[in-house]
Amino acid sequence: MENQSNERKYVAQIELILEAFKDVEVYPLDWEKEPEGAQYLYRAGVVLIRDEDLGRVIELFEGGRPAEGGIGGVTRLLLPERVPEQAPEDRSPTQRFLRYADLRLGRGVVTPEHLFYVCPSVSPCPATEPEEVPPGIPPDPVLPTPFLSAGAADGRGVKVVVLDVGWSDAPAAYWLNDVTGDPENAFDGSGRIRPYAGHGTFIAGVMRAIARNVEIVVKSYFTTAGAIWEFDLAQALDEVLDLAPDIISLSAGTRTRHNLAPLGLDVFVKTRLDRINGLTLVAAAGNESTRDYFWPAAFPEVVGVGALADNGRDRASYSNFGGWVDVYAPGTGLVNAFLTGDYQCTEPPYSGQVRSFQGMARWSGTSFATPLVAGLIAGRMSVTGESAKQASDALLAYALTQPEPGTGPVLRAGDALASLP
After folding, report:
1. What counts of helices (H) and strands (E) characterise the chain?
2. pTM for the whole structure
């Protein structure tokens, strides 16, 4: 990963999250002085463990209290105030507990509760903030009329649930008719657009531009600075299964301690996602320009989506990469539905600049390559009758037939039926 610790934009984004979450800590604590900057964000005074390990962990820690909520199979443990004397020294009590557990029980038995964040928006490594576009500009990409005619790959009969910041009705965007969801708190006390607002609406717009009749429900979970705790995200993913989606689209994630799979989401994937026939989770690969695993996109059971540069061939400079990324898709300079109102930039070098939006914006990030791929899966399903898992497997196989040198397998708008005879 490139050294971002001295970049004003990077520091500003970390500080926004620290302001919003009072119990968050950054690893390493001296992240501003470290060559690689922050590795991950986590909750102070809390760890996650599998239910079957609860007894021996409490005994090892000489205390601790399980918290309520979450999903069966994983426990959020509130740490005791006293750290065992045998624990290694560390300025963070939570890190002392974690290192002690590593030494006595092995890595991965006890993990921090990571903070997951939407990408971009107010995340530690956003691609861009939304940019103004001229009035009347159409979506980009958008499929030409023949792709959207009756019987085409329009996503009809397919349901996608988007976990994001919520939904803002955009009546001027005709392609968003009948999209539903939880209303987001999009404006601050001064009437300006919040830094993370409009993210879910833009995502729905990208998906509808690819699959015009797909059913989309946008849920509001990332309501605090565009972020959510791991334990709560696992519970949210479990809850949306009640809506019986074919596809779950998640433009959020995080890096983790030791690059290990986040425990809360690992339990969800193994005991929930894998047990529902045909269900597919599509997730953003992240915008940190690193090959480190970014979860949940890095799970082999999840379709992890990276972003292409604006030339449609190269990997976008901000996109994460590596063998764990399943496919790359257009994600740079996309134009789609946004909010109407003024937005004050929070990221250097544009901090303080006010931008005025009229229902559309230009935005970049793996966040937006993700719904494009979800739309392709939905479009294929509506023609072939395949499940989301079958359709995604077929599209990923096709992407392998058109790799870009130095990037990897690629899908583009219009590829939904490309592999069919």
Report:
1. 9, 16
2. 0.94
